[in-house]
Specification:
Number of helices: 2
Number of strands: 0
Order of helices and strands: HH
Radius of gyration: 20 Å
Shape: flat
Helix content: over 70%
């Protein structure tokens, strides 16, 4: 049983070393394309509408992130998810 837990821990350790650079790369690509997308959106929308849409999408993304983070924390504490 201890060997199985140890091997799972090693697997998770290797996965975390692969996930971090992958997420960093995704973030860099997203930031790189951000200015291009703003230029494209200004053809159909005003500058203020473009900024509002970007902030609105970011608020939704961060809200979902906090929601999932809260569910994970409740799961770790053993509380029922309602």
């Amino acid at each position: 049983m201890a060997n199985q837990l140890n091997s799972q821990g090693q697997f998770l350790g290797k996965m975390s070393t692969l996930i971090s650079p992958a997420l960093l790369l995704i973030g860099v690509v997203a930031l790189s394309f951000g200015s291009i997308f703003v230029k494209w959106s200004e053809n159909g929308l005003s500058y203020n509408a473009t900024v509002f849409n970007r902030l609105w999408l970011a608020a939704i993304a961060f809200g979902l992130w906090q929601f999932v983070k809260g569910i994970i924390e409740r799961f770790k504490r053993g509380e029922p998810i309602q």
